[in-house]
């Protein structure tokens, strides 16, 4: 009698967000579980959600560790990364003692998680680099001065080591794929683009909730991380510009959290926007759907810098999935994602950004047509279903005959 073949075990490492809060990591892990893989995720604990040290989410085993995000400028990152790496190594060895690990999928930042893969490689684990952020560009965008140069070249070094050690690379867009091939020296055949696309079963428009407008005609909405490079301060200044023009017909909800949140709350007060702008923090999927379904205009205020110009912003495609028009600064990958579903403001100019928002507020037909085109673009080109097929095909090539037969990504759905 032959025994059933063991499911390949994928160990996913992520440091900058908890799971399932991290939508991309959760989608990828759920996809692999549905295709017949055994998946364990090691990640930090959240502050108000994802707080349990261990959980099972949609068949994904999640191990979480305590972590305090970096503070105090550039010097805080070595402390944060050292603590995260210690916990990740500890938990990875615990996972390995329970059974074999076939693949270590490291989702950056930081670009130090290859060290965990090296520990498990002698036991047969393959290493996949899931390239979420351009860390050298992240440091260029966040810091200035002499330390900026030192940090930049240190991050370039560890990035190159990560690329060199990877058995395969998953890139979030074509710009990142080009970095892997040209700067990382990776064989193009080993790099697969898996875009962060919304699950259309979860991002479905619903009836607007007038209560969210707080008695106003319009709602402006933002969804995403609130770090120094995310530009929420630009959104606040654009809202102030609209208010200073005498507009009193909108309320604004900025959903999310991050290490810039306290500064943003201070800026809101400084600009006199306490009664105009609401910060609900991290919110449930139901709240996101209600808020985006109610919004007249969605905001993507990430300024142009070496990181943002080449990065795909999840919120852009999520706004489009909900049929909402949006305003973005003029970034290369924002145009790739949104095309004509967005209006673009040049030169990181908050006045021009406010002009674009005002144009949409005053033109309901334009809002409707842009929202419709955005939803159609997601349905036909940018949904998670397309990315899902690419991810499963990547794993089928990586593992060959060891991959689950239902998880090739080539024939139908396995879910």
Structural class, from helix and strand content? alpha/beta
Q: Could you say which overall geometry the principal axes of the C-alpha atoms support?
A: globular
Main pleated-sheet profile:
8 strands, mixed
Multimer state: single chain
- Give the number of domains: 2
Mean pLDDT: 93
CA(first)-CA(last) distance: 29 Å
Helix content: 40-55%
Low-confidence stretches: 409-415
Number of strands: 14
Strand order of the biggest β-sheet: 3-4-2-1-5-6-7-8
Beta-strand residue fraction: 15-25%
Return the CATH architecture of the largest domain. 3-Layer(aba) Sandwich
- How large is the radius of gyration? 22 Å
The ordered H/E elements are EHEEEHEHEHHEHEEHEHEHEHEHEHHH
Q: If you consult CATH, what is the topology of the largest domain?
A: Rossmann fold
* The CATH C-level class name of the largest domain: Alpha Beta
Task: Identify the CATH homologous superfamily of the largest domain.
Answer: Glycogen Phosphorylase B
Secondary structure tally, helices: 14
